[in-house]
Structure formats: C-alpha cells, structure tokens
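Thought: the user wants the 3D structure for the chain below. I'll pass the sequence to the structure tool as-is, report back what it returns, then summarize two notable features.
Action: structure_tool
Action Input:
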Amino acid sequence: MNSNKNIPSYAEGLEELQNNLGNMLPKEALAIFESDAAQLQATHTTILQLQKGDTAPDFSLSNAIGETITLNVLLQKSKVVLTFYRGTWCPYCNLQLHQYQQVLGEITSLGAQLVAISPQTPDESLTIKEKNNLQFEVLSDNGNIVAKQFTTVFKNDEKPIAAMIDLGINFDNHYADDSQELPIPAVFIIEKDRTISFAKAIDGDYRNRVEASEIINALKK
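Observation:
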C-alpha cells in the first residue's frame, strides 16, 4: 500500500485495471496484447534519448484547442514535467494521466507544470482531457517529431492493431498520419534553463509507467 494516501499508486491501479480487462476482453485479444507487451519489453531495453543533465530541445506543438504551446515559453513560468503517452484508446495511458491529475496541485506547489504529449490529433487530445478531467496541457506531436528526441518511437505491430479493430477501436482514426508509430512512455523534468533533472522510462512494456510519487519526490529534491 502507498504510504502517502494523497499520492495514488500506479502499481495498485494497474493491478485493478488488469483484473477488470481480464473480465471484459476476450481471451484471444488479451493473449495478443500480452505477447505484444512482452515482445516490446524484450526488444527495447535502451529507451531514453535524453538523460539527466542533458539540455532539452525547444519545441512548439498544438494543444487540445489548437493553440501553439512552446517549451521555452512554458519555462519562463516554471519548470516542466513532461510525459509522453500513446493515446486515448490506451487504458494504461488513461490510468497514468488520471493519477497525475490527482497530484497536479502538489506538482504546481513544487514549482512545476505538467505537460503530456502524444502523436494524437488535437481532437483526440481534447477527448482524453475531457474523459479524465485533465487540467494540464495535452499536446499533439504529429509524426512523433518531438517524441523521437526524448524517447524511443516504434511502429505498432499489425496484430494488436487488428485486435483493437475487432474490439471496435480504429487505431488509425486517432492520428493524422499513417505511420502507426507510438512513443514508449517516459517522463522528464525540465528545469527553467532547459536542463533535464529527471528522466525515466520503466521499460518497453507500455503497461509499466513512472509512479506519481517518483515525480513528486524528484521535484522535492
């Protein structure tokens, strides 16, 4: 059990989510997703393109309502907690972002702002904001141009895409290009001078995410 009751535990949330998915989804689909996650974990052992101490590149991306958001402008206000995620359709992304929203007040009080990036369209960014009542910027990185500078990007396999279609989820509808590429989830803390003070991805298995408590502890240092 998480010792701090104010900070949700992703590990506990993941266990509950997987139990729910196990009851909801066909065994054939679950087997495909399980195999895909295991393959990604085995294949991608080195993920981060930028490490602690590196300088974060500037970027400009559209937010959920079409406004252009620039890293340098954000950093004029405060440091930035930057997280890369896959999409609205991904239950693990929804769990992670929902939990980060729960600690947004503490992140802000520690002198930082939270920003989430995915290759989704702005409309899909708006959907995930509304779905999880997110009060932070959710940006659209068409073609994973920014993601490729921070984390590993890979082409989603045909089998999980087909399994999603069988479940009524059209993967391609969430994105503006047809690359079918996704970022491996990762979190960075960027100081006001663009120095990266925290950089972490768990592994290639997209179900594993950085705990909110790790972000809070890093901001407190």
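Final Answer: Structure generated. Residues 45 and 165 are 29 Å apart (CA to CA). The two ends are 23 Å apart (CA to CA).
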